[in-house]
Every structure is written in structure tokens, then in C-alpha cells.
Design goal:
The complex is a heterodimer of chains A (423) and B (271). By secondary structure, chain A is an alpha+beta fold. Chain A is 12% helix and 30% strand. In chain A, helix 1 (146-154) runs antiparallel to helix 3. In chain B, the strands form 3 sheets. In chain B, strands 2, 3, 4, 5, 6, 7, 8, 9 and 10 form a 9-stranded antiparallel sheet that branches. The chains are: A alpha+beta (423), B mainly beta (271).
Chain lengths: 423, 271
């Protein structure tokens, strides 16, 4: 019998910049302390996020002292325990491995229990290296674009020693110009990256290949939906009450994850649980202020009430750039977009990345009237069949495209919670 | 020769729509894929058919080896089933009413058909039917299954099956309740004692199976000679796709290791 399982591996530092061999420590990890692993973008309520890689807490049995720090001869960390790489792999029932978490030990937060002989590590995701790399003078200059500045911040030896860098994986939502680069000096890379991501309307994540990715918030291209604007007979584009263009879904390219609820006629049900559905008002912003330049949409303010969001970027002095950023955010967040959380078997979620497309076919369940079958269009004869009972209060049509904004692996239940936002 | 033994256990159907099985029909083609799932609530109904109209259904799936076929909850009276793109008859066929030459029925009168035959490896099944059990009715099939057998219990397990309506119940402010019944699901506990190695091996196979599997409590038995009443879970049409859950427990009665062990296993219906 093949079963799914998790493996936890550690790679200690050999010198300040080179790593030794990877060691399997799964047998030492205390199960009840090993819970959820998550990554998310824009997934906290009421705000616009750029990235959050949740930290991981790992408690290990230290009966033989192998997890002591480098000052003990029994330690496996012969240079330093800090910054040792931690990797969590998931192996499915077919034996296929997927890396679901990469992180670094943050030794500042390590706690050791002498009574229980345990060591509790705080693992920070690999992008925590940004906190330790300073943005040196001259790295970002006046007049460069946001995307060029982001590339300069990411493409540093201390960072690329841990994370993959590919300039082709860096693209931004709005590519403005930096007017004054002095606010970046004497700051760590994370602070600078956050400023640039916010200004460019972009998000950061690490993909399956371990590469750093910066992109706008549009759904991943691997399965991008193709929409067509709806027009009237005269060819004029149709809009809804709020002025948004009405569109029809033409196709979904690539390999979007297809999820089915309990009402699927072919019993393809692969949704274990679906909840936390809301209509998206909690993340609707229809009045955006950037450096005192405000962009607003009165139609949406009238309809949904005012949703305020403001940014201050010291490195932008141009009012045109500030207005363009405000306009960009307004377009992105003025329309409420539904969000929900769906739980699926980890087996089918391992290839899913942040911003990947997902479709959900969640129909109401039809239960036949006693002694009857469910009437079918095209087959059933009017008057001879009985209407079925309809179970369920809400449905989700399969022609809506959702994008992944959060992934949470539960190592105990082997379920993955995907937080989705309508694209 | 008739179907032998007791409770039967099979691999899950190899022609499920969700595993890339497909069906086409001479009428009502749009709904014929319904027969390729274990959904008991949907079926294929012919359109414009009577007892002079031959309806054909062709089922295609990934190449697989099969030795058992079910047609669950149908009203066909005469029909034949062959396999392959060049239709070939099955050999050494045994149905619920005895041996036959190929799968050919001329006056079938039960609601579920089951056939055992020599193993074949194929990608296609062909069904042709003309008459229904009630003259000139529309033909219907609820579930079609191609499979291979895991085993047949030789002993008589103590089975406690139960159906669960999976209801949601909330007490409202009047003190009364709102109850919403969901799809009914099959659950069972099997307890095997005073049995032989073959039955224990089936229990092991069920427990170790990563894939869901099929269980047929009646094992092909039906009618007053076998059951005093027609009871849910024990009828011919009660074929369930299940998976084991929880622990399996085996003990030696009175710690006598040369006696009969007692083992039990829990099952629940699986998608």
C-alpha cells in the first residue's frame, strides 16, 4: 500500500555562503507541532497585500543533541544553525515528490527545552533573506523604471545564493519612473522591494522552480481565460449598472485546476470543503490616493460606499506618476470580486501556484422525488416526471475564473486550502 | 452454473466518465455519459423508442482488463453486450440467472444485470437493446460498470449496513427544526469470524486499497429463495463504490491462535 507522506529536510551552512549536504530529519520532527504551511498574496481581509510567506514552526526531538547550535560538538550545524535551509516535500500515493515549502532557520527565535529535550525552530520563508541584505548606494538610481529597480534588488549574490533569479520572471503592473532614489538608501531589501511592489501594483512569490516571480495580479498565463466583450446589435459594448464591461468567457487555456462540488452529475467531486465566501466588498477600493493625488470612481462610490486606500511614496515626486499609480489601483480594486476558501486533497493541489487559474463547478444538488429519477432536458416527457428536490443555498457557475491568492497545506489532514479570488 | 459465493468485492469501474470513459447512444446521446458514474440519481433514457427500435450504446475507455460487467437499475428485456471495435462475444458467461452463450438476453426481467466471463482486455463495450420489460417503454440505464473481481466472501460476514441521509438540522427561534436531507450514502461495518484465509485476504485487500472499490452485499442473490423481503442495501441494484476508514481490528477468540480470528472493517461510500 503506497501512502502519501511529508519529508522534512535540512541543509546546514558549510561556510558563510556555501551549503553542505541535505539531511532528512523527518523522523525527528514532532508530529503534533507540525501543522500548517501557507503562502498567500492579498489574502488578508480588508487590505491589498503584496506578499506574505507564512513562517513555519518546527519542533524536533533532540535526544542526542544533533540540533544543538554550532558550539556543541554533537551538532549537525558545524558552521552556524542560522540560515540553514529547511525544505518540506510532499510525496503522493504514486510516489511523485513536490516541494511545498522552502525556508531558512531564523536562529534568533530558536527555543530549546531541556526537560523535554526538544528544539523549537522558527523557519522563515526563503525570501526572509531580503531582511538581511542591504540596498547599497548606487544600486537604484534616479530615472530608472520600477521594474529595473526591482531586478536590481533581486539580482544580488546573497539573494541568488538562495533563490533563483530570472529577469524574464519579473514584470510589473504599472512601470513608472523613480524620480528620487535617496529614500532607498540605508534600507534592507525587503523594505525597498515592498515599496517598489506597491508602487508598481505587483506581487511577489516564489514559483515551483524556486525562482522569484514578480508579476501583476492577473491570473497566471498558463491557463488564462479569454473573454470577449458583449455587444448589442449595433455593435456597442454592453456595460452593467456600474459601468463595467459585460464579458463572456470564450475559453480557458492551459491547465487550469478544475474543481467540482457535490452536485456534479458525474461525481467528479474533488472539493472537500468550501467556505468563507464573500462578495468581495471587503477588498473594494474606489478612492485611491497616492502622494495626495486622488483617483476615484463616483459611480462605484455611490453604489458600494466609499472604500479608501492611500499610499505615500517618497521616491515619486511627479504628480503624473502618482496619478497613474492611483488610476491603476482604482481599476484593479474598484469592482468587488468574490473570494472564497476551498479545501482539496493535497494530491491535486501540489502543482498549483499563486495566481494560477481555477474553475469551480458547484451546482445545487438535485435529489430525485421519491420513486422517480431526475428529469433530463431532451429525454423527459412533460407531465410524466416529477421535479426533483433542490439541495443547497448557493451555486458557482463553471464559467467564472478564479485565481489562487493563498495556499495552505495541512500536514495532518493531507488537505490543502486554496484561497481564491475571482479574476 | 450460477453466480457462487456471498458478498462480492470488485475494483472500481474502469469506464467511469471522470477517468476518461465516454459513451455515445443512438438516441438521447447528450445524457448517456450519466451511466458512467456511480450516481444513482441520474440515468440515460432513450427518446422516441419502442419495442421495434434498436437502441445502441457504445462505451469507450482506456485499455483495461475486465471480467465482470454490471448494468444497474435498467428496464431492458432483450439486449446483447459485446466488446471491441469489431464486436466480439464474451466467453464462458454466467449471469444472475445462470450460464449463457455470450451476453445475450431475450427475456430479462430483473432491474440489474451482472455477468462474469473470461478476462478480456479492451477499450470498447457495445450494447444493443430492442425491447423493454414494459412493452414500448423508453429504455433506461442508470449505471454501467466494467470491472474485475477482488474477491467473493465464502463465509457469512456479520454486516451492519446503514444509510445516512446526511441531513443538516438547525433549531430556529420558534423551537422547531429545519432539516435538509442531503444525498443518501451507504455505510457498513463488516465483521468476519469463523472463516477461512481467503476471506481474510479479501479484508486485507479492501483495507490496503488506495482506490475506492465496489461492494455488492447481495452477491448476485435475489428473490424469495434468498431474501424474505426486498430490503435496501441488499437488492441487486445496490452496488456501492466504497472505501474503508478507521482501523481494522483482528483478535484471536480467547487467545487461541489455532481457532478462528475475528476481524472487522468499516466502509463508507466514496466519490
Amino acid at each position: 500500500m503506497n501512502v502519501a507522506f511529508y519529508t522534512i529536510l535540512v541543509t546546514p551552512l558549510k561556510t558563510n555562503e556555501t551549503y553542505g549536504d541535505q539531511v532528512d530529519i523527518t523522523d525527528y520532527v514532532i508530529a503534533r507541532k507540525f501543522n500548517k504551511i501557507k503562502q498567500s498574496v492579498d489574502s488578508g481581509s480588508y487590505d491589498i497585500g503584496i506578499y506574505t510567506y507564512a513562517d513555519l514552526s518546527l519542533t524536533v526531538a533532540n535526544y542526542d543533541g544533533r540540533f544543538n547550535d554550532e558550539t556543541e560538538s554533537s551538532s549537525m550545524f558545524y558552521f552556524t544553525r542560522d540560515r540553514a535551509k529547511i525544505q518540506v516535500k510532499y510525496t503522493n500515493e504514486a510516489g511523485t515528490e513536490s516541494v511545498i515549502y522552502n525556508g531558512l532557520i531564523n536562529d534568533e527565535a530558536t527555543l530549546q527545552d531541556f526537560e523535554k529535550d526538544t528544539v523549537k525552530f522558527r523557519i522563515l520563508s526563503q525570501d526572509s533573506i531580503f531582511r538581511k541584505v542591504k540596498v547599497i548606494g548606487g544600486l537604484i538610481n534616479d530615472g530608472v523604471t520600477f521594474s529595473a529597480a526591482i531586478k536590481s534588488v533581486l539580482n544580488r549574490p546573497a539573494i541568488t545564493a538562495i533563490l533563483g533569479y530570472d529577469a524574464g520572471k519579473v514584470s510589473v503592473g504599472y512601470d513608472g519612473i523613480i524620480d528620487d532614489s535617496t529614500p532607498f538608501s540605508q534600507k534592507d531589501s525587503r523594505t525597498v522591494l515592498e515599496l517598489l511592489l506597491n508602487a508598481s501594483g505587483s506581487v511577489f512569490y516564489i514559483d515551483d522552480a524556486g525562482d522569484m516571480v514578480v508579476s501583476d495580479r492577473t491570473v497566471g498565463s498558463s491557463g488564462a481565460a479569454v473573454y470577449a466583450s458583449l455587444t448589442d446589435e449595433a455593435g456597442a459594448v454592453l456595460t452593467d449598472e456600474a459601468g463595467a464591461t459585460l464579458q463572456s468567457l470564450e475559453s480557458v487555456g492551459g491547465s487550469n485546476l478544475e474543481l467540482y462540488g457535490a452536485g456534479d452529475p458525474y461525481q467528479r467531486d474533488n472539493i472537500a470543503k468550501i467556505n468563507n465566501y464573500n462578495n468581495g466588498l471587503q477588498r473594494t477600493f474606489n478612492t485611491i490616493t497616492v502622494n495626495e493625488q486622488t483617483s476615484t470612481d463616483e459611480t462605484f462610490v455611490d453604489r458600494y460606499g466609499i472604500g479608501l486606500k492611500s499610499y505615500t511614496f517618497d521616491f515619486i515626486t511627479s504628480t503624473a506618476t502618482a496619478t497613474a499609480i492611483a488610476d491603476y489601483y482604482l481599476e484593479q480594486f474598484k469592482v468587488p470580486k468574490a473570494e472564497l476558501k476551498v479545501y482539496v486533497k493535497t494530491d491535486i493541489s501540489t502543482g498549483v501556484n499563486i495566481l494560477d487559474p481555477v474553475t469551480i463547478d458547484y451546482r445545487k444538488r438535485h435529489k430525485p422525488f421519491n420513486g422517480s429519477k431526475i428529469p433530463l432536458a431532451g429525454s423527459s416527457v412533460a407531465g410524466s416526471e416529477k421535479s426533483p428536490y433542490v439541495i443547497g443555498g448557493i451555486k458557482i457557475a463553471p464559467n467564472r475564473i478564479w485565481k489562487v491568492i493563498g495556499i495552505e497545506y495541512d500536514t495532518k489532514t493531507f488537505l490543502t486550502a486554496l484561497r481564491l479570488r475571482e479574476s | 452454473m450460477t453466480i457462487s459465493g456471498g458478498i462480492k468485492v470488485f475494483e472500481k469501474s474502469s469506464s467511469l466518465f471522470k477517468d476518461s470513459g465516454n459513451a455515445t447512444a443512438s438516441s438521447a446521446d447528450g445524457s448517456v455519459d450519466n451511466i458512467l458514474s456511480m450516481n444513482r440519481n441520474l440515468r440515460w433514457d432513450s427518446v422516441g423508442s419502442d419495442d421495434t427500435t434498436a437502441e445502441t450504446i457504445t462505451i469507450t475507455f482506456d485499455s483495461t482488463t475486465i471480467s465482470r460487467i454490471f448494468i444497474v437499475d435498467h428496464n431492458l428485456k432483450d439486449f446483447s453486450i459485446t466488446y471491441g471495435a469489431s464486436p466480439t462475444a464474451f466467453t464462458n458467461v454466467v449471469g444472475v440467472d445462470g450460464s449463457k452463450s455470450g451476453i445475450v438476453e431475450t427475456a430479462f426481467s430483473e432491474n440489474t444485470s451482472y455477468y462474469e466471463f473470461d478476462q478480456v482486455t479492451t477499450t470498447q463495450i457495445n450494447i444493443t437493446s430492442t425491447k423493454t420489460q414494459i412493452v414500448d417503454a423508453q429504455k433506461y440505464i442508470t449505471i454501467f460498470v466494467t470491472t474485475d473481481e477482488i474477491g467473493t466472501f465464502e463465509g457469512f460476514p456479520n454486516v451492519i449496513p446503514f444509510s445516512d441521509a446526511n441531513e443538516k438540522r438547525s433549531q430556529v427561534v420558534t423551537g422547531k427544526y429545519i432539516t435538509q436531507k442531503n444525498f443518501e450514502t451507504f455505510n457498513a461495518q463488516l465483521r468476519v469470524e469463523y472463516t477461512n484465509q481467503a476471506d481474510i485476504d479479501i479484508i486485507d485487500s479492501m483495507y490496503e486499497s488506495q482506490e475506492p472499490f465496489l461492494i455488492w452485499l447481495c452477491g448476485g442473490k435475489y428473490g424469495a429463495a434468498n431474501f424474505s423481503v426486498d430490503f435496501k442495501n441488499w437488492r441487486l441494484k445496490d452496488l456501492y463504490q466504497v472505501q474503508t476508514y478507521d482501523k481494522t481490528r483482528t483478535i484471536w477468540r480467547g487467545n487461541v491462535y489455532i481457532g478462528s480470528p475475528v476481524t472487522s472493517i468499516k466502509l463508507a461510500e466514496e466519490v
